[in-house]
Amino acid sequence: MSAASLRNATSIMLAGSDAQVGSLPSLLDPLCEADRRRILAIGRKEVFQAGQHVWRQGDLQNGIYLIEEGRIRSYYAAPSGREVTLAYWFAGNFVGGPDLFGTGAHVWSSVAVERSQVTFLPGPALRALALQSASIAVALLDALAFKARCYSAMAQMLGTRSVTERLHRLLIFLSKVYGSQQGREIVIGIPFTHGDLANLIGSTRQWVTVQLSRMQARGVIRYHRGLIVILNLRALDLEVV
Asked: Where do the HTH crp-type domain residues begin and end (predicted)?
């Protein structure tokens, strides 16, 4: 995995504003070539097929996974069985915190949404590298700080915004990060099912289906087979002020 493959990497989570989260600090980009090689040297390539768990809530932690290709969803499963999606992570992101060095139990689950290739970095070896290199230690801290901001922003949104506002905020975020301007339309380049969107805002698939249909009828969006096209971004902005 080259450093170039990690540039401009991002993730999808629920946040009140883009400024609350900012850009994802890549784990490898700030490092010198020697430190990059040292990290990758302890790694082991793994592949997870769509629907396969990287780990389940309660499993013992043993390291982190750098995503090279694919998409991984992190979620919390409540005792009732309800799942709350924390984020979708893409190439350049890592999953496996907050205990980077492999202690304790995982407090949420991570599952591959599509075929995903990762590099597993074992906790004890990663800890040894952090003790040897201040640059590696700082890169790990920066990545953890980013994730903490993600989850804090998500908690704020869930606690202070209505579910309608959360859906609109999510669509705005997707349009800015993954949108491609095509004339007056913004095409979101990554497909999402109604269930995906519902998981991200803490709602139900049925409710999201109704809301998207209403927005489509008002000429705000167009939705077909997972492809979202924003027709009136201003209308979404006005409704989340």
From this structure: 161-234
Strand partners, 65: 95, 120
**pLDDT tens, 130-165?**
999 999 999 888 888 877 776 776 676 667 788 888
Of 46-50, 56-60, 69-73, the least confident: 69-73
**Alpha-carbon torsion (48, 173, 208, 231), positive or negative:** negative
pTM beyond 0.85: the answer is no
Q: For the chain, which domains are there?
A: 33-159 (2.60.120.10), 163-239 (1.10.10.10)
**CB proximity list for 118: less than 8 A, separation 6 or greater:** 45, 46, 47, 48, 54, 65, 66, 67, 68, 70, 72
Whether the Cβ atoms of residue 90 and residue 178 lie closer than 8 Å to each other: no
CA 236 from centroid of its chain's CA atoms: 22
Residue by residue, DSSP assigns 211-230 as HHHHHHHTTSEEEETTEEEE
Tokens of 134: 């201040």
CA gyration radius, the chain: 19
Burial 3-38 (b: 16+ CB within 10 A, else e): eeebeebbbbbbbbeeeebeebbbbbebbeeebbeb
Tokens of 209: 């289906």
Q: What residue has token string 């949404």?
A: 113
Q: Report the alpha-carbon distance of residue 102 to residue 96 in Å, rounded.
A: 9
Q: Are 38 and 146 in contact (CB under 8 A)?
A: no
Residue with tokens 């490092």: 31
Is 221 within 8 Å of 231 (Cβ atoms)? yes
